[in-house]
């Protein structure tokens, strides 16, 4: 079962990448009010039960995929 | 106000009842929220040095070559020929335990700012790292994270990391140490800038990154031990941006070069608060600031949060009104925020506004100059336990040696140093693994040398001895490469000062540090104190890490490895050399250290002189450090050229001879035709110093009498295992 | 003599080293600020130094490739002027599509600072040392693994665009590639840092030969 884990910097944490990209986009003439850069991890879990699979992906995200001190994550079924 | 409220306030702001009473006395009324915040930050241990000040005052800090001693952002020494350098070392321990990568990264960022805020371009960094046991659960993650943080920040900002030290000891299990050193260069004619808010009517200009909620109450956190609440104690983690810092370095150096600022200071621990109050205090002036004008990352940050925010990469400039336009133009060019947030006033008050509303009018004197100074009770440590070295000859010496040098505690640090850009700036002459960093100065073409010191195992044995060694060993290592040590910076990492035994460690260590500095004529020009390194009641072993800087006139000097076979090897040491079995006892025998580490500072200055003289003759050199003579010999063989030792110390066991740490000795390799000259260097100091020919360099093998004959290749294989034992545990 | 233009982006940190190297071999040089437009004919050649332009954010070289100055650098490349990219400069030239392929994360997934031995595989316009074909230069990068689709690699091989190869591949670059050029051979780039190997005391003098080429090329 496929899931995507969207990992973003915590809203209150500084996002150096987002800040730099926003600057570049603005210089290219785009009006950008905010920009945050994160990553997407797509996992295909070997589990038939959707609830169980979802729980596993949440565990993956909490344990290793995201750093809860500075990142938040959102899990979506694909 | 009910007692309950007061109690919770004291806890929140981390002040004692006595401190609260004193604060009330100074202010003259019940403190408001802003005043609580200010006192909390500036009277924290981290900012006020309240537990250590009284002892630091007694240190050896003045000297003709010192241009700026402790008290400013960094210390500065005069190297002669118009060249001056600023350097300092700083700790970022607690944050690096919580979030290793960012904690270490922001530590590097902070120390860099302390350097370039003086007007010196940072040209070299070093790191001093202490982790818990190799097999402790936290260690792999911490090593990985810290190294990634230091490398990631230093490499991006373009300052080479040229040297360092990494040790493992159980006392750091829940309290690892990250000490960052940085050095900046003033080229001939370049001016030094200070953090002084002087000139009534001059503008207070905020530059750099916008302010967010990073690390609110961080300074207070660094002043408190960890308890089981550690998981909940997550301030908003400070995130460093080395790209931004690079822009800040360029913009700030430019405004300083163009003489556009009167004073400049970085915002470090306790952010805007400490920088502005310290600047006002140094200049004995007043300030008026409108916090509403501080550029913010989020719209709803409160004035208290603004004052205490530890958002990174921000500076405060003091600018004459007529020069503001030019300053703004430079910061605009470098894409950095630049906002006038206040001005200097007459008097001694700092007035904080929120638009029109006056939030507080605070006298800075009590906050900075009259912060409490404690003479905490202390219990000096007892004399060290000296024993006979009883470790017996191992059944298989070769196997034991291989096992010893492949231990992560002893093995190669290449896994770490490979992640550091050691050569950006095109001035680096050495490699991290050489032990003493060498940087070529662009103007005089002389060589700047630097090294770090402090051996935790020795500190655990006795703080005063360990502290003396924290100066002596790097000074001798530098001398063996032809570098004369000139000055010192230190990072005093200790446990809970409210415990007399810990305070005693501190006092004892400072005494050792001071004695050694005086003996070698190397003043302490800057430093940092990190107390409360205690978790769940367990304190770290007191660790006064040092960063030592010196100069070498000649472009060339002894290398750290043997370049060829056929060289003569000599052992030069103090006549009263003492032996102490430290690392071997700990790692192989599983016992406490044996023997005696006796440091005779008088003899050491003679040894330093002999090492300096010998460096002009020797082809290669290694001072005996951790792991004893065999480690020094092995390190010389790292390039593949081996050694044949035909010398033995009759009254010593093979374990003592090979593995005991020596106080002090060095191995020097010379061309046979230069042997006589080398022996001559010791002649006029033969009351203190002894020289013995111990062998020759040869191809492929390391042989010690009939005891040991091993291929250098297999030793290299063992040594290169490096930190693999730890790092492999990481995904 | 027209100066060599040394591009400086926000975050570039090896520019001073490149200037020092050009000074050392006696070649006039001048900074080109990323935000400014410039007239290519005012210069004799161009160097894009190493460093971390824009912190390597998003992708190394990605943001710098769109700097205003790059419009004119593109023009200069199109009319055949000599352009050298070093490390981050190589990354920027690839992102700007002035060179083929892309520089990705080292196989080790770590930053690597080490000395490497290189072989000059073919001649590349100005950047061709006739004195040496083997170089010992330092690398210092985390995104040095050059990759490209098979057909592009073949094209480079057929057109003799592969300039330098590692004797011992440190980062997983396809075919051990350390440096390449464009078809016209006026734009060339390498991951190692020649400006950090200008003298024995730096660890190797081999980088100097590359800068000497520029001088020998009649600039």
Q: Helix segment count of chain A? A: 2
- Shape descriptor of chain C reads globular
Taking the sheet with the most strands of chain C, its summary is: 9 strands, mixed
N-C termini distance of chain C: 7 Å
- Rounded to the nearest angstrom, the distance between the terminal CA atoms of chain A is 8 Å
Give the radius of gyration of chain A.
15 Å
> Main beta sheet of chain A: strand number and arrangement?
3 strands, antiparallel
- Which two chains share the most extensive interface? B-C, 31 and 30 residues
Structural class of chain A: alpha+beta
Q: Give the low-confidence spans of chain A.
A: none
Order of helices and strands of chain C: EHEEHEHEEEEHEEEH
Mean pLDDT of chain C: 95
Q: Summed up, what is this model?
A:
Chain A is built from two helices and three strands.
Describe this structure in words.
The complex is a heterotrimer of chains A (78), B (731) and C (219). Chain A has helices at residues 16-27, 50-65; strands at 2-9, 39-44, 71-77. Chain A is of the alpha+beta class and 78 residues long. Chain A has one domain (2-77): Phosphoribosylformylglycinamidine synthase subunit PurS (Mth169, Chain: A, 2-Layer Sandwich). Chain A has a 3-stranded antiparallel sheet with strand order 2-1-3, covered by helices on one side. The termini of chain A are close together. Chain B is α+β, with helices and mostly antiparallel strands. The mean pLDDT of chain B is 94. Chain C has helices at 15-24, 68-78, 88-95, 150-158, 207-216, and strands spanning 4-8, 29-33, 45-48, 83-86, 102-104, 112-120, 134-141, 145-147, 162-166, 177-181, 187-190. Chain C starts with a strand and ends with a helix. With 219 residues, chain C is of the alpha/beta class. Chain C contains 5 helices and 11 strands; from the N terminus they run βαββαβαββββαβββα. Chain B binds chain C through residues 151-152, 155-158, 241-244, 246-247, 333-335, 417-426, 428-429, 440, 442, 555-556, and chain C through 10-11, 13-14, 16-17, 20-21, 35, 51-52, 54-57, 110-114, 138, 140, 142, 193, 195-196, 198, 201-203.
Helix and strand arrangement:
The complex is a heterotrimer of chains A (78), B (731) and C (219).
Chain A: E1 2-9, H1 16-27, E2 39-44, H2 50-65, E3 71-77
Antiparallel strand pairs in A: 1-2, 1-3
Chain B: H1 3-13, H2 17-27, H3 33-42, H4 45-48, H5 53-56, E1 66-68, E2 75-80, E3 83-91, H6 93-98, H7 100-116, E4 121-131, H8 139-157, E5 161-168, E6 177-186, E7 203-208, H9 218-222, H10 242-257, E8 263-266, H11 271-283, E9 286-290, H12 303-308, E10 314-319, H13 324-333, E11 337-345, E12 349-354, E13 357-363, H14 364-368, H15 397-406, H16 414-417, E14 437-440, E15 447-453, H17 456-461, H18 463-479, E16 484-493, H19 500-520, E17 524-530, E18 534-535, E19 538-539, E20 543-552, E21 568-581, H20 583-589, E22 594-595, H21 601-615, E23 620-623, H22 628-636, E24 641-645, H23 654-659, E25 661-670, H24 675-683, E26 689-699, E27 701-704, E28 708-711, H25 712-720, H26 724-727
Parallel strand pairs in B: 4-5, 9-12, 16-17, 24-27
Antiparallel strand pairs in B: 1-2, 2-3, 3-6, 4-6, 7-10, 7-11, 8-10, 9-11, 12-13, 14-15, 15-20, 16-20, 18-19, 21-22, 21-25, 21-26, 23-25, 24-26, 27-28
Chain C: E1 4-8, H1 15-24, E2 29-33, E3 45-48, H2 68-78, E4 83-86, H3 88-95, E5 102-104, E6 112-120, E7 134-141, E8 145-147, H4 150-158, E9 162-166, E10 177-181, E11 187-190, H5 207-216
Parallel strand pairs in C: 1-2, 1-3, 3-4, 4-11
Antiparallel strand pairs in C: 5-8, 6-7, 6-9, 9-10, 10-11
